[in-house]
Design a protein that fits this description.
The chain has about 425 residues and is an alpha+beta fold. Helix content is about 35%, strand content about 15%. The strands form 2 sheets. It has a 7-stranded mixed β-sheet, sandwiched between helices. It has a two-stranded antiparallel sheet with strand order 2-3. Strand 6 (about 310-320) and strand 7 form a beta hairpin. Helix 4 (about 100-105) packs antiparallel against helix 5 (about 110-150), helix 6 packs across helix 9 and helix 6 packs across helix 11. The radius of gyration is 51 Å and the shape is elongated. The chain binds phenylalanine. Phenylalanine binds next to strand 8 and strand 9.
Length: about 425
């Protein structure tokens, strides 16, 4: 039976019959067109398929592209976090995204169809990318704002942390004095607080019958076995044994400074402590004289009270220095004014104009000999001063017990250096 189709003709019938063999398609699809390709003898296999309709590639149809774009924009808009946006980007702008897959089909289109399909898909992809960029910036802004809110610190809130500790004013003064000498090339030396009598007395030319060795002055350490009798150990009564330890262990020339705790069998009162701090200085070199000693003393007075105060040496006696002296400095409060007739009295120097601050002298040759040093070649000087006393003078503290009471109201006034 021969029935003409909508575009049917005798030729078509013949073609369909030939092309599909025994199957005769009486109702070809609407889009099906008769082309040269299909006409026997006119088939040109290498020519482009000019009548190919891009609409027929479903993925490239305007409706499909619009739908893919709408899906993408919806997903991007719905992304509430940067992670969700990343997922939306992979789904709609990634390798398997519908628009990407549609774009891959363009190559199969005839040239005149390619341009239009390319524009359509390209515009959609650009719109997707713009939307992703815009959403990305927005979500980043949101996140940054969120960080400002959640990580906000109210600096006006009172904090309840235990306050950090600080060094004690006595320690700070000791360090400050030691620093003056370290800056001049001295080394810091230390020794034990429980010291052998030989270091504390004998080597320093303090003979056994010296009054300093009396029970009422020195705290002796009991024998470890509990037996009665001397242990040969004392709680050091001064930092001078560190002179001996340094001379025995360090090479010459030698410049050391030695701050530390010392002990004396003394009643506690406004000006005396049984445990207090000293700082010792010792220099042994060739050709040192008392002029060098004076220079060293002036340096620490300048460091502690500021430059401009005079110092004075008066003869004194220490078994380990010869000659020995006591060091005074001009009163930093009245500057000597209180001594003048009719002047206001000065509590700091008790109107003496001078304040005694240290003991000093040239190292006794017997000390050098005790340490195996040739006194004909080497000479030296030494000085020692009480740190609490220096602190009290520098800061107008009248009561030495304030330095041991452990009351932070006292310490805080000196600052909170760690
Ligand atoms: N060691 C002495 C004292 O405690 C002080 C001093 C040190 C004197 C060094 C002279 C030299 O009193």
């Amino acid at each position: 039976m021969r029935t003409a189709g909508p575009v049917g003709s005798g030729v078509l019938d013949a073609v369909t019959t030939r092309t599909f063999g025994t199957t005769i398609d009486r109702n070809p699809p609407r889009a099906f067109q008769l082309t040269d390709d299909l006409i026997p003898g006119k088939r040109t296999m290498s020519a482009p398929n000019k009548n190919y309709d891009p609409v027929a590639v479903t993925a490239l149809s305007a409706a499909e592209v619009d739908r893919a774009l709408a899906d993408a924009l919806a997903a991007i808009g719905a992304a509430a976090t940067l992670d969700e946006l990343k997922e939306a980007r992979l789904a709609h702008d990634g390798d398997r995204a519908p628009l990407r897959l549609a774009r891959a089909e363009i190559g199969a289109l005839p040239p005149e169809a390619k341009a239009e399909a390319g524009r359509r898909v390209g515009a959609a992809m650009a719109a997707v990318r713009d939307a992703i960029g815009e959403r990305q910036r927005q979500l980043e802004r949101d996140r940054d704002e969120q960080v400002l809110v959640t990580e906000r610190v109210d600096v006006t809130l009172p904090f309840d942390r235990t306050p950090a500790g600080a060094r004690h004013p006595v320690t700070m003064t000791a360090d400050r004095l030691a620093d003056v000498f370290v800056a001049m090339g001295y080394e810091v030396a230390e020794g034990p607080e429980a010291e052998a009598e030989w270091y504390n007395f004998d080597a320093l030319n303090i003979p056994p019958d010296h009054p300093a060795r009396e029970m009422q002055d020195t705290l002796f350490v009991a024998r470890p076995d509990g037996e009665p009798g001397p242990s040969g150990m004392v709680l050091r009564t001064h930092t001078s044994p560190v002179q001996i330890r340094s001379l025995l262990t360090r090479p010459l020339p030698l410049y050391v400074v030695s701050p530390g705790k010392v002990y004396r069998n003394e009643a506690l009162d406004a000006t005396h402590l049984p445990v207090f701090y000293q700082i010792e200085g010792l220099a042994v070199d060739e050709g040192l004289t008392m002029a060098d000693l004076r220079g060293a003393i002036q340096a620490f007075v300048d460091a502690l009270f500021g430059a401009g105060l005079r110092t004075r040496l008066r003869p004194d006696y220490f078994p380990f220095t010869e000659p020995s002296g006591d060091v005074s400095m001009e009163c930093h409060v009245c500057r000597g004014e209180s001594v003048k007739p009719g002047a206001d009295p000065c509590r700091t120097c008790r109107s003496m104009g001078w304040i005694e601050i240290a003991g000093c002298g040239m190292v006794n040759p017997r000390v050098l000999v005790a340490c195996g040093i040739d006194p004909d070649r080497y000479s030296g000087f030494a000085f020692g001063l009480g740190i609490e006393r220096a602190l009290m003078l520098a800061h107008g503290v009248n009561e030495i017990r304030d330095t041991v009471d452990g009351d932070v109201r006292f310490s805080r006034a000196f600052g909170m250096e760690i």
